[in-house]
Write a structure and sequence with these properties.
The protein is α/β, with parallel strands linked by helices and 286 residues long. The protein has a domain of 194 residues: Rossmann fold, CATH 3.40.50. 39% of the residues lie in helices and 17% in strands. The protein has 9 helices and 12 strands. The strands form 4 sheets. A 6-stranded parallel sheet has the order 2-1-3-4-5-10, sandwiched between helices. A two-stranded parallel ribbon has the order 6-9. The protein has a two-stranded parallel ribbon with strand order 7-12. The N and C termini lie far apart (38 Å). Belongs to the dTDP-4-dehydrorhamnose reductase family. Pathway: Carbohydrate biosynthesis; dTDP-L-rhamnose biosynthesis. Its EC number is 1.1.1.133. It catalyses: dTDP-beta-L-rhamnose + NADP(+) = dTDP-4-dehydro-beta-L-rhamnose + NADPH + H(+).
Length: 286
């Protein structure tokens, strides 16, 4: 099987390459090879590669910037997704699209099922929802959240850096979701492909946390692993104390029951996955 992966230099793109199953030939592209903001380039490129499957791990992810850069966000997160899906259909290939918890408004008090009503709060979520709709029901859509990986810019690396630089940090405590370890997410996507899944699936690590909870865990695991060598005070704050251009859902825990049934079991807890990544960072630093 030949798989075309977009977003090859991102956290998930790298993880998809690292977890590729035996027998799969990869063609991995970034924006330099295929600019998704120019949808007219997509079909000819896909036809030249002739993949059996396309996994779209590329996205416009600058949530706050999207509020004033809506045209480019829609081009990448919406229009390009439709073009990729159409190109896949034209050559008989399968299409996989990665989406986000930001398609929900955060008003629920229980985890969001894949068929729960969507109501994005900002441009980023709206453009990602448009991408889902343009992908079509014959595609595999995997929604995820709070992605982090050993390589790339993410919350874990940002927190570790700030904890080394400052004696005190403040972290939002009233936004609840679940972290997603990119290598585990990538493995789950490959497994969903293998079982022929189509439609909408949710995948994150198991459990739930606030950003404050996640930051405290990063500190504790980082300190235990020797990546941090001093005490840091972590203070919980409200979203209102840290205003941003884009609104975030206050609760975006995803119901993964359907996905875990397809995979044959649940994902590890987010703290277990975080500990695994920290251990890898510790080993790399020695």
């Amino acid at each position: 099987m030949k798989a075309l992966i977009t977003g090859c230099n991102g956290q998930l793109g790298r993880s998809l390459q690292a977890t590729v199953p035996d027998g799969v030939t990869l063609v991995c592209v970034g924006s330099a090879e295929l600019d998704l903001s120019q949808p007219d380039l997509i079909k000819p490129f896909v036809e030249s590669v002739a993949p059996d499957i396309i996994i779209n791990a590329a996205a416009y992810t600058a949530v706050d910037k999207a509020e004033t850069d809506s045209d480019r966000a829609m081009a990448v997160n919406g229009t390009a997704v439709g073009a990729l899906a159409d190109a896949a259909r034209s050559i008989g290939a399968r299409f996989v699209h990665v989406s986000t918890d930001f398609v929900f408004d955060g008003g629920a008090g229980t985890p969001y099922a894949p068929d729960a009503p969507t109501s994005p709060l900002g441009v980023y979520g709206s453009t990602k929802l448009a991408g889902e709709q343009l992908a079509g029901t014959d595609s595999l859509i995997v929604r995820t959240a709070w992605v982090y990986a050993p390589v790339g810019g993410n919350f874990v690396h940002t927190m570790l850096r700030l904890m080394k630089e400052r004696p005190e940090i403040r972290v939002v405590a009233d936004q609840i979701g679940t972290p997603s370890y990119a290598p585990a997410l990538a493995s789950a996507i490959w497994k969903l492909v293998d079982v022929g899944a189509t439609g909408i699936y949710h995948y994150t690590d198991s459990g739930a946390a606030s950003w404050y909870d996640f930051a405290v865990a990063i500190y504790e695991e980082g300190r235990a692993a020797g990546l941090l060598d001093k005490d840091v005070t972590i203070l919980p704050i409200a979203t209102a104390d840290y205003p941003t251009p884009a609104r975030r859902p206050s609760y975006s825990v995803l119901d993964k029951g359907k996905t875990f049934a397809a995979l044959g079991g649940p994902a590890p807890h987010w703290r277990t996955q975080l500990r695994q990544m920290i251990a890898g960072m510790q080993a790399a630093s020695q």
